[in-house]
Design brief:
The chain is built from ten helices and no strands. It is an all-alpha fold and 172 residues long. It folds into two domains: 41 residues; 112 residues, Tetratricopeptide repeat domain (Serine Threonine Protein Phosphatase 5, Tetratricopeptide repeat), CATH 1.25.40. The radius of gyration is 28 Å and the shape is globular.
């Protein structure tokens, strides 16, 4: 009798699961069928007075605010290399290459053995067109190979790209 009850319970559970799963939408279907009211309930009204200034700002202005916040974090914790690298990369992405390279140069002087600082500076320098910058990037990747052999294949690949650019400059 116990075995029969267990089997019946298992069958009922399985049948209920199958019927329930057939009647439910997949997550993709559910996401595509949310009404505007559901969306407003979940995310708030798009016409919210608090969001209007943000929505009217151009992307660069709002990114500028983010950069200012990141600069404050870096100033508050100058030993955090990761935040400084993020700031340098953000400067570069916002077309402030000079500021990015200055920060990376400062980091390189403070932490001369830091592989990530070398890689970041070299990767930005290699986007340049001057022989001096490309030569420095090539040298930085050579140092990365010595300090971190695991990164050698990536560094050599970048050195190859730099070599092609240097050869192109020499032919001009």
């Amino acid at each position: 009798m116990v075995v029969g009850a267990t089997a019946l319970l298992g069958l009922t559970f399985g049948l209920g699961y199958m019927v329930g799963s057939r009647s439910q939408q997949t997550p993709d279907e559910a996401a595509n069928t949310l009404s505007d009211t559901d969306m407003q309930r979940a995310f708030g009204s798009v016409k919210s007075p608090a969001l209007e200034p943000i929505m009217q700002e151009p992307a660069a202005m709002s990114l500028g605010g983010l950069v200012a916040g990141l600069e404050k974090k870096v100033a508050a914790n100058p030993e955090n290399i990761d935040q400084q690298l993020l700031l340098a990369q953000t400067y570069n992405e916002l077309d402030n290459r000079a500021k990015s390279l200055n920060l990376l140069n400062t980091l390189l002087k403070r932490f001369p053995g830091n592989v990530q600082v070398k890689i970041t500076r070299a990767s930005i320098l290699m986007t340049g067109t001057s022989k001096e910058e490309l030569t420095e990037a090539y040298q930085l990747f050579a140092e990365v190979i010595k300090l971190k052999p695991d990164a050698a294949s990536m560094a050599r690949l970048y050195q190859g790209e730099i070599k092609v650019k240097l050869d192109h400059i020499a032919k001009q």
